Amino acid sequence: MWDVADFEAAAYTTVAQLSAYVAASGRGHEPVVRTRPPAELAAAMDLRRWLREGGMDQDTYRGFLATYLAEGTRLHHPAYLGHQCAAPDFPAALADFVHGAVNNPMAIYEMGASAATVEFEVLRWMLEKAGFGPGGGGVLTHGGSLANLTALLAARAAVTPAAWEDGVPGDLALLVPPSAHYSVTRAAAILGLGRRSIFPLEVDALGRIDPDRLPAALDRVLRAGRRPMALVASACSTGTGLYDELRPIGEFCADHGLWFHVDGAHGASALLSEEHRHLLDGLETADSMIWDGHKMLGVSSVAAAVLVRREGDLDRAFQQEASYLFYGDRGFDSIGRTVECTKGELGLKIFLNLAWRGERGLGEHVAARYATAHRLWRLASERPGFSCPYEPQSNIVCFRYGSADLDQAALRRRLMDDGTFYLTSAEVGGTRHLRATVMNPATTDQTLEALLDAVTKAAN
Hints:
Elements: H1 4-27, H2 38-44, H3 47-53, H4 58-70, E1 80-81, H5 90-102, H6 113-130, E2 137-141, H7 144-159, H8 163-166, E3 172-176, H9 182-190, E4 198-200, H10 214-223, E5 227-234, H11 246-256, E6 260-263, E7 288-292, H12 293-296, E8 304-308, H13 311-315, H14 346-382, E9 386-387, E10 396-401, H15 408-417, E11 422-428, E12 431-437, H16 445-459
Parallel strand pairs: 1-11, 3-4, 3-5, 5-6, 6-7
Antiparallel strand pairs: 2-8, 7-8, 9-10, 10-12, 11-12
Helix pairs in contact: 1-4, 5-14, 6-14, 7-9, 14-16, 15-16
């Protein structure tokens, strides 16, 4: 089935085309995004014929791959300022290539001892950076949504250990700011808590938790006859890139016996930057946190860490038996800590980026993206017609152009339709804003000036 000569030839073609694709994307000469309708794209790639007849060879694969790449979104493009996905560095891409060939699903140690060991050491490094110490534990998952779910499973096991056997009691509650990532509310539903278990925390005008109003929030939960299962903070918020003040929140949780979970999916990488690590002051007081490698560590999607301060808490999150998997000494298996049974070699992606760039290099990458975002804020603040609701703390900038009744979502659509810039959008204080996320080292001051010019032109 595996023809080595065919593989080598196709791999050569793949590397050559990907190299050209990344280089062209970095120069910014191609549209950053294309969104042709699926029917047109399916026809352009001749998908139905290939699905039914097969027969692709080296020449037809070359043509298919060229079309496939041309019709996608170019994350290496300087004008990519969209969602929080990295413009992946090549060491992580090599890891994906290796995993695609060897396919070692290492949640069971004997299925991939080298991959599992790499993950163990990556997690040990992350725990140290988070300040969780030698007693902590962790696991890598396929994405931050699964990571948040896993952390909250650990919180549920700590508060109500019998839930796995007896079902979820109806009196549990989660204290969550409205600005939290949607995956937290989704996790509450998956866990059987229901949306009514969510008690919104009081926040400031920019969506950050107000520590002084935490006693009143806890009192509301208790007066409703509920038991608090966890309090969730953001480091940083997905919408605005602003950090909750972790230390006073953590101290409040410790004083009242509350599980403290920090969603650091995007912003925990600031731990590597001397200039920005203060934004996570107090992280060590958390009981659990998540940290995505596929955001600010330059890793391809997806690789997210669940970290807990006490290793046993994660081991109690799942209480599963399956005779074909769990028998004898489970040794170094991590399957007992994850939703996934078959799990990719996620640690290799983070490890190779670290091994190539170093901890300091990745920290400089984070600091440089934060600095570019800060320059965008300054440029927009100084331009007529633009307004910014806050000074950014990370690489996420929200801004508006024009009058209060100008449709910012329509403005974004115009920029995307011609492929010049890829932005997202978010509400801040109930008002719709354009949202730029600086992920790419190729994004320069020239890019930022061109963005503001393009927004002005599209509005007028």
